[in-house]
Specification:
Layout: E1 41-46, H1 61-70, E2 75-78, E3 81-84, E4 98-105, E5 110-112, E6 118-120, E7 126-127, E8 139-140, E9 147-157, H2 172-183, H3 192-195, E10 197-204, E11 207-212, H4 231-234, H5 246-249, E12 258-264, E13 268-273, E14 289-294, H6 298-307, E15 312-313, H7 323-331, E16 336-350, H8 375-383, H9 387-394, H10 424-434, E17 436-437, E18 448-449, E19 462-468, H11 471-485, E20 490-496, H12 498-501, E21 517-523, H13 557-568, H14 581-590, E22 593-605, E23 609-610, E24 629-630
Parallel strand pairs: 1-14, 1-15, 19-20, 19-21
Antiparallel strand pairs: 2-3, 4-9, 5-6, 7-8, 9-11, 10-11, 12-13, 13-14, 15-22, 16-21, 16-22, 17-18, 23-24
Helix pairs in contact: 8-10, 9-11, 13-14
């Protein structure tokens, strides 16, 4: 502050005597107090307290939101596309920082076979030779010869000048350290990509290089980068010890816009602006302090948002049952509500292949009738499901009735797939055609089987329907119960505790494949269409320790081949790749499950907060938290 003192002098010119002016009385100059700088604070309310912030720990939705403030990227996924954040660019075959090389392999080498499984090369292995991207060119290895195969090499270059929040330089070696942690048998999580990786190493200070095993042609190669973890801070601990270290699980350092300052268990997590954030020169983040408060009750959360105690309600708070009231408050300018569909698919699975059928189907042995072996039965049931009513009444019109396992907004969506609109008359005609007859012409009573393959004559079309007791699923199941009854299909609704429904192992409802109909959701972890959800390799059974997610037991080699071929083809950009047309067509014709709706993300913010919006494919709703700020007119609102 610059202080300017102005002295006013007055000269009096007088010839006659005048009284002398009084001596000035000394006064003490008032001390100047600097104007305090107001600290800007952002408060976000979360639905629950994170169990841990260790990136390779068990992360709930709240933990991912907090980590979005500590880290930034390294790769964002928005609007069905990927964006580099701390990388100079996403690698591509076109630009030359991703390569598809031809290598020679021999017996004993580690490769990925034609069925996408890593193997040690030996006689009898089925391989895709170099240039082969379809099943018609697969060969069987003789155990002696050398053979040429495709191998992917991808280079990832970090932005220069990145630092950890403690001041240490962030380098490619930190990404390699992350790969080492992820590879440890003591670190939980999928080892799918790790098992198909030949090497991952820092070739320069800012460049890491990924080599896939020969035969593994990954269409998602642009994301095969492990998010850095601080070797300098964590290297003294073993992988098994890290989840229990407070500096790792409760106060991990990062490179993002904020740094953890204090964690008050059961109450909140306080963060401060990171002065070393690589975008600090842009004036980011906009807030000096960030507070995450834990508010599990949605009614209380909404009240606190309106009162100003919360600035943002994270979608992790269960707001899906509060849509009407949120819309009303939004209309009155008391808050801003945001919606977005997600990549999480709520679906109704048919028990096509119960685990009891694994040793062969036999009615004489007491097996359940083969209720869904004829795909026409599945198609008819789909036409008897009023899915549009689900979307309109349960989801307030915020989602859509899916026709595929890919959202209609995705660039790989196939618009020509078979649609099964709600049509009771068409559904009943198809049931009649299969042999499910309405003997008494009374749709209130269950239809009976007469001439249905694998089903004894006289068997009633009564199906068990298992799901959780969540409020929304109760609404959904009750609506579908009524619409199915109009076709002469009766269901026994069974609401299970989530722990019981999702328990892994033989004899359990989903993973043990013991149901007629089952409603649940599957979440996509990337932008690539998850056709493998319905691949035969994902059928849970004794061979894979009951760990697959194809709970219906759907098994179609043609579908498997189409899914595999889609994954083996490389487009220059995912958004321009039209390789999933066939696999979606097979899916919609066979209909192993009925896609019910895409789950909806619901969030809310105070009026005047700019930058908060939801995206269908973002991992966290707070992916751009550094740009949040208060303003009069927010772009996009």
């Amino acid at each position: 502050m610059c202080l300017c003192v102005v002295t006013l002098l007055s000269a009096c010119a007088a010839k006659s005597p005048v009284p002398a002016p009084p001596e000035p009385t000394p006064t003490r100059q008032a001390a100047l107090t600097p104007t305090p700088v107001t600290q800007k604070t952002l408060t976000i309310c979360l639905g629950q307290e994170p169990a841990s912030l260790y990136p390779y720990g068990t992360l709930n939705a709240s933990a991912r939101s907090v980590l979005a403030a500590i880290y930034d990227g390294p790769i964002d996924s928005n609007s069905y596309g990927y964006q580099a954040v701390i990388l100079q660019k996403l690698p591509s075959l076109e630009d030359g920082d991703a390569l598809l090389e031809t290598v020679t392999v021999k017996a004993g080498d580690e490769v990925v076979a034609a069925d996408d499984l890593p193997v040690t090369l030996a006689a009898g292995a089925r391989l895709r030779p170099a240039g082969c991207q379809a099943d018609d060119c697969v060969v069987t290895y003789d155990g002696v010869s050398e053979i040429e195969m495709d191998q992917m090499v991808v280079n990832f270059s970090l932005l220069p000048g990145l630092t950890w929040s403690d001041g240490n330089v962030l380098t490619a070696d930190d990404s390699v350290y992350s790969f080492e942690l992820a590879s440890s048998p003591d670190t939980p999580g999928s080892k799918y990509l790790i098992d198909r990786t030949q090497s991952y190493e820092a070739v320069e200070e800012l460049m890491v290089q990924w080599w896939g095993k020969p035969g593994y042609v990954d269409p998602a190669y642009t994301t095969n980068f492990w998010s850095p973890t601080p070797r300098h801070a964590w290297q003294d601990f073993k992988a098994a010890e890290l989840p229990g270290v407070d500096a790792v699980a409760r106060a991990p350092i990062g490179w993002g816009p904020y740094v953890i300052d204090e964690w008050l268990s059961g109450e909140s997590i306080h963060l401060k602006k990171n002065p070393r954030y690589f975008r600090a020169g842009e004036g980011l983040p906009k807030f000096d302090d960030l507070i995450f408060r834990f508010v599990s009750d949605s009614n209380l959360a909404i009240s606190q948002l309106i009162a100003g105690t919360c600035d943002v309600l994270d979608p992790g708070i269960p707001l899906d049952n509060q849509v009407e009231i949120l819309k009303a408050f939004d209309a009155n300018r008391q808050l801003k509500v945001k919606f977005a569909s997600s990549m999480n698919l709520e679906q109704l699975d048919f028990g096509i292949l119960p685990a009891a059928f694994d040793d062969g189907f036999s009615l004489a042995a007491g097996d359940r009738p083969d209720l869904f072996g004829d795909r026409r039965t599945r198609q008819a049931i789909a036409m008897c499901l009023d899915r549009q009513k689900l979307v309109d009444e349960v989801l307030y019109g915020l989602s859509e009735v899916p026709t595929s396992f890919i959202p209609s907004g995705h660039p790989l969506y196939n618009e020509t797939v078979t649609e099964y609109s709600y049509d009771v008359q068409s559904g009943m005609r198809l049931l009649d055609e299969v042999g499910w007859k309405d003997q008494d012409n009374d749709p209130v009573t269950a239809r009976q089987a007469w001439g249905v393959a694998g089903v004894p004559d006289g068997t009633e079309l009564k199906l068990s329907y298992v799901t959780t007791g969540a409020f929304q699923r109760r609404q959904v199941s009750e609506i579908l119960d009524i619409s199915l009854a109009e076709c002469g299909i009766q269901v026994d609704l069974q609401y299970l505790d989530p722990l019981d429904l999702y328990r892994i192992g033989e004899g359990n409802p989903l993973f043990g494949r013991r149901f007629d109909l089952a409603e649940f959701a599957l979440a996509s972890t990337g932008l690539e269409p998850p056709c493998n959800w319905y691949a035969s390799s994902e059928i849970p059974g004794a061979a894979n320790n009951w760990m697959g997610i194809n709970f219906s037991g759907y098994n179609n080699p043609i579908y498997d081949a189409a899914c595999q071929s889609s994954g083996n083809n490389l487009g220059q950009e995912v958004s321009l790749d039209g390789l999933y047309t066939d696999v979606q067509k097979i899916f919609s014709d066979d209909l192993p499950v009925v896609p019910l709706y895409w789950q909806v993300k619901v969030g809310a913010a105070r009026v005047g907060l700019c930058g908060f919006w939801l995206d269908p494919t973002s991992v966290s709703s707070l992916w751009n938290i550094e740009a949040y700020e208060f303003g009069e007119n927010c772009p996009g609102d």
